[in-house]
Amino acid sequence: MTMKRSFFERLSGAASPEDSFDFDDDLPTATIPTRAEPRTRVSEGSRPMLPDDDNNKSEGQLPVDVHQTPSEIIIRTFVAGVRPDELNISISRDMVEIEGTRSEREQVSGPDYFSRELFWGSFSRTILLPQEVDVEASTANAKDGLLTIILPKLDKAKQTKLRVKAG
User: Fold this and answer.
1) 124 lies in a domain?
2) Cα first-last separation, the chain
3) Could you give the number of structural domains in the chain?
């Protein structure tokens, strides 16, 4: 009876050359994601291809962290390079929308760039909240490029008794 060698034994050469190698019978298949655009290597005297500004006018999506405490929902996002007056935050009981524009302060021509990775332009993000919040008591604070939005939760279990007035 011949024992089938493990994939690692066959890969590392622990199996003898006489053993037959059929890699497809015990390996799962997987697809490897590919890049949408190939990277270009910068060599001396050459410059990488940069995206054309006119073709790149799409709106950026803002990455956010959302977590909760027993009484609040807290949203954090980086808005470095954006002045507070360039931010628009809309809050409803179950949704928050953050919009803004990051304006490039200094204009540099395309051939003068070696690398261009920062996002410039308008961005937005809509966050559906897991619980209703008190819109009026919500606050937003931007410090050191970090925007923090604090949304107090509405307590649905809280009941209020109303007195009926006569007359």
Assistant:
1) yes
2) 100
3) 1
